[in-house]
Amino acid sequence: AQQRRTLIAGNWKMNGSLSANSGLLGDLLAASIESASEVLVCVPSVYLAQCDALLAKTSIAFGAQDVSAHQSGAYTGEVSPAMLADFSCKYVIVGHSERRAYHHESNELVAQKSLQALRSNICPIVCVGETLEQREAGKTNEVVVTQLQAVMDVLDDGALARIVVAYEPVWAIGTGKTATPEMAQEVHAVLRKTLAERSAFAAEKVRILYGGSMKPDNAKELLVMPDIDGGLIGGAALKAVDFLAIIAAA
Ligand code: PEP
């Protein structure tokens, strides 16, 4: 984690309203975060304009939670990477397990979304992670490497070095169950090695976040692990005190 700037990213999921967001962002801004870490909130796309208005020229970056794999055209209901870029959006989560599960997103679709986001200068946060069943069957490494490899296959080395990866064990998301620091580190090291087999430079650059019930009381022990470069935080990102405590722990 030494050479890489820690990234603390909130995933608001489908929560918020104009008034709740302005309250939460107001509380975060009022805390005038003094952190060496990069702080990010990933919001429903309809609130990007609000974030652009409230967060421009502040130390909090904002991103989206999904993006189309296409740049424009007849894709009703989708939002293109260029549209995200229009609102100064810096990041987009791709392949979150909820989208893989409820919207049947394949590894190949996640790879295309990552590629198209990068073309609009938006950094994809590529989520990977195993289900409980896969972990119990001893397939964790195979699953996450296959998910990452699909994205690596469509990117050149320069683009690869710009992505962020988030390891989110599906059984830990929203369940209150967290991977132990050792369990998470083991998978993060496998992901780093997978990147290194392709490009030593990318392996050094790419930040690998941990996600899955990260909270103020477990953030520090996770974030000190050598290959954990930050966190992707769901539930605890919706309360300013909790999110700020995680930022302080980083
Ligand atoms: C997530 O959905 O990305 C997540 C990590 O959620 P939670 O922190 O609530 O487990």
Folded structure, characterized:
With 250 residues, this protein is of the alpha/beta class. It has a single domain (7-249), classed as TIM Barrel, CATH 3.20.20. 45% of the residues lie in helices and 15% in strands. It is built from 12 helices and 8 strands. The relative contact order is 0.16. Phosphoenolpyruvate (PEP) binds next to strand 8. Substrate binds at residues 11-13, 174, 213, 234-235. Pfam families: TIM (PF00121).
What topology does this entry show?
Elements: E1 7-11, H1 18-30, E2 38-42, H2 48-55, E3 60-64, H3 81-86, E4 91-94, H4 97-102, H5 107-119, E5 123-128, H6 132-136, H7 140-154, H8 157-160, E6 164-167, H9 181-198, H10 200-205, E7 207-211, H11 216-223, E8 230-233, H12 240-249
Parallel strand pairs: 1-2, 1-8, 2-3, 3-4, 4-5, 5-6, 6-7, 7-8
Helix pairs in contact: 1-12, 5-7, 7-9, 11-12
The protein binds phosphoenolpyruvate.
Phosphoenolpyruvate binds at residues 11, 168, 173-174, 211-214, 232-236.
CATH level-4 homologous superfamily: Aldolase class I
By DSSP (H or I, 4+ residues per run), the number of helices equals 12
The number of distinct β-strands equals 8
Query: How are the strands of the largest sheet arranged?
Result: 1-2-3-4-5-6-7-8
Find the CATH topology: TIM Barrel
Kindly provide the radius of gyration, computed on alpha-carbon positions and rounded to a whole number of angstroms: 17 Å
Tell me, what's the shape?
A: globular
- Give a short account of the largest sheet: 8 strands, parallel, barrel
- Percent of residues in beta strands? 15-25%
Bound molecules: phosphoenolpyruvate
SSE string, helix = H, strand = E? EHEHEHEHHEHHHEHHEHEH
Mean pLDDT: 96
Low-confidence residue ranges:
none
Using the coordinates above, name the CATH class. Answer: Alpha Beta
Structural class: alpha/beta
Ends apart, CA distance between termini = 11 Å
User: What percentage of residues falls in helices of 4 or more residues?
Assistant: 40-55%
Count of the domains:
1
CATH architecture level-2 label: Alpha-Beta Barrel
Family: Belongs to the triosephosphate isomerase family.
Keywords: Cytoplasm, Gluconeogenesis, Glycolysis, Isomerase
Pathway: Carbohydrate degradation; glycolysis; D-glyceraldehyde 3-phosphate from glycerone phosphate: step 1/1; Carbohydrate metabolism; erythritol degradation; Carbohydrate biosynthesis; gluconeogenesis
EC number: 5.3.1.1
